[in-house]
Amino acid sequence: MTEGVNVPKSIVLIGFMGSGKTTVGRELHQRLGYPLVDMDHLIEQRAGKPITAIFAESGEDAFRDMETALLQELSAPDAPRRIISTGGGVVVRPENRELLHQLGYVVWLHAPVDTILERTGRNRERPLLHTEDPRAKIEALLELRRPWYQATAHQAVDTEGLDSSEIATGILESARYFFTGHV
Ligand SMILES: Nc1ncnc2c1ncn2[C@@H]1O[C@H](COP(=O)(O)OP(=O)(O)O)[C@@H](O)[C@H]1O
Ligand SMILES: O=C(O)C1=C[C@@H](OP(=O)(O)O)[C@@H](O)[C@H](O)C1
Ligand SMILES: [Mg+2]
Fold first, then answer.
1. Which PROSITE patterns match (predicted)?
2. Is 22 annotated as a binding residue?
């Protein structure tokens, strides 16, 4: 059997909190019509509570277990082609990085720290940034995670100064080559 024949490749968005994964995922979903899975939203829906409550009541490890279980589910051989928006910490586990890479065309959205700080400051949805010094936390996590984003992604996109429509167009232009094999 030719490798990958029964595993339709999805478009997978990775990157730090506030890089635009949820927003660009919606844009790609609208353009392509592929089903959208926003992992955070699905986890919240299934748990019946927001991520802040999952972290507070069960801890970060329990949330990471939910992410890994969901990635395994999304990797089923009969899965449809999808748009998948991940949470920013999905790359911390090596088994997740492997699963992400197998799932399809992986795009790393990134943005400067000031932009991340501004975008994530708009609400209190991200428990890891409920700290005295969110900038220092962002810088420390970015330092740790950057190599994992880089190693997992097929494409990196600097989102600074671009709106979600422009970002989606850039992704689709490059994804075309990945899916068709033609340059
Ligand atoms: N390219 C962009 N330009 C300006 N604002 C953006 C962009 N992408 C996302 N945002 C805004 O930044 C915030 C975080 O975006 P979101 O899509 O939730 O990021 P993520 O899912 O990566 O954490 C939201 O308020 C969103 O509207
Ligand atoms: O970076 C992280 O570890 C997290 C990112 C969040 O998703 P977004 O990247 O969509 O904000 C969410 O999964 C959770 O708060 C943990
Ligand atoms: Mg998101």
1. SHIKIMATE_KINASE (PS01128)
2. yes
Q: Which residue has the tokens 């995922």?
A: 25
64 is in an annotated binding site: yes
Give the chain's domains with CATH numbers. Answer: 10-178 (3.40.50.300)
Helices (H), 109-181: 113-120, 134-152, 164-180
Ramachandran category for residue 11: left, alpha or beta (phi over 0 → left; psi -120 to 50 → alpha): beta
CA of 163 to the centre of ligand 1 (A): 9
Mutate to test the pocket of ligand 1, among 117, 119, 164, 166 (most ligand atoms within 8 A of CB): 119
ipTM above 0.85, yes or no: yes
Kindly report the protein residue whose alpha carbon is nearest to atom 10 of ligand 2: 87
For residue 24 the two structure tokens come to 């660009």
Tell me what percent of the chain is helix, strand and coil, each rounded to the nearest 5.
55, 15, 30
pLDDT tens across the length of the chain (183 residues) = 344 444 569 999 999 999 999 999 999 999 999 999 999 999 999 999 999 999 999 999 999 999 999 999 999 988 999 999 999 999 999 999 999 999 999 999 999 999 999 999 999 999 999 999 999 999 999 999 999 999 999 999 999 999 999 999 999 999 988 888 755
Q: Which ligand is nearest to the CA of 51?
A: 2
